[in-house]
Fold this sequence. Notes:
The protein is of the alpha+beta class. It is 24% helix and 27% strand. It has helices spanning 51-57, 61-75; strands spanning 3-9, 15-23, 28-36. It has a 3-stranded antiparallel beta sheet with strand order 1-2-3, covered by helices on one side.
Amino acid sequence: MITWKILELFADCKGVKYFASIANGKNVAETEGxxxxxxxxxxxxxxxxxxxxxxxxxxxxxxxSNLLAQLQAMDSDKKVEFPWLADTFTPGQ
Length: 93
């Protein structure tokens, strides 16, 4: 399950800064970004808007698929050497 939080609300409720994360017990993938609401998306009076409304109005599909891909990549047990260490000369070899 992906956890969403609103970090900032931009002027006139035109957009938000969000944080999203997913964990599987072994790894955590996180991201944050800005989302600008399409015209007409915000359909409540300002004083009635809750954090969940803002989260619901975000087009989450791309963010969620990227988080899931990151988590899946982290789950691979394949170790990768640092690129700056590749082909490094080691005395005695």
